[in-house]
């Protein structure tokens, strides 16, 4: 069974890393280009995810050390890998559009508010799983 205190702390670290990496650490030109088709979109999204995951990894590492929470390095890397891979898939766009269409929001996802709501909700849902992987017994 997961240690609930460790889980909640790690979840908080992931969420903070998400806010820093996805909002503060994302440059305007990257935000505009990361969902574009072709090589430029792929490159922009990859750069964004590298910055994003570096923020999460740093905050997770510092947070674990400050609170004295032990996590197996392999599980921490696995949690971060899930975060990075899903972040890339969501930010490239087709996954987001498909989920919106499947839930009856095909038109709403075309608006800025709809896209932002789906994007952030999916990212946060994934981070709950990443935290569980990171502190798995």
**SSE-based structural type:** mainly alpha
Question: What does the largest sheet look like?
Answer: none
What is the count of DSSP helices, taking H or I runs of 4+ residues? 6
Overall helicity? over 70%
Q: In total, how many domains does the architecture comprise? A: 1
* Chain-averaged pLDDT: 93
Separation, N- and C-terminal Cα atoms: 7 Å
Number of strands: 0
**Unreliable spans:** none
Q: DSSP strand (E) fraction?
A: under 5%
- The secondary-structure element order is HHHHHH
Question: Could you please describe the fold and organization of this structure?
Answer:
With 137 residues, this protein is mainly alpha-helical. It contains 6 helices and no strands. The protein has one domain. The radius of gyration is 15 Å and the shape is globular.
Keywords:
about 140 residues; mainly alpha; about 0% strand
């Amino acid at each position: 069974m997961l240690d609930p205190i460790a889980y909640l702390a790690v979840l908080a670290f992931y969420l903070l890393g998400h806010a820093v990496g996805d909002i503060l650490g994302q440059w305007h030109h990257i935000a505009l280009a990361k969902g574009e088709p072709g090589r430029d979109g792929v490159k922009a999204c990859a750069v964004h995810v590298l910055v994003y995951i570096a923020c999460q990894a740093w905050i997770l590492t510092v947070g674990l050390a400050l609170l004295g929470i032990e996590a197996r390095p392999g599980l921490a890397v696995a949690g971060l890998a899930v975060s990075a891979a899903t972040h890339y898939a969501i930010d490239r766009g087709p996954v987001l559009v498909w989920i919106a269409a499947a839930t009856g929001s095909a038109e709403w996802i075309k608006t800025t508010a709809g896209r932002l709501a789906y994007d952030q909700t999916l990212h946060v849902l994934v981070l709950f799983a990443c935290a569980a992987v990171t502190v798995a017994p």
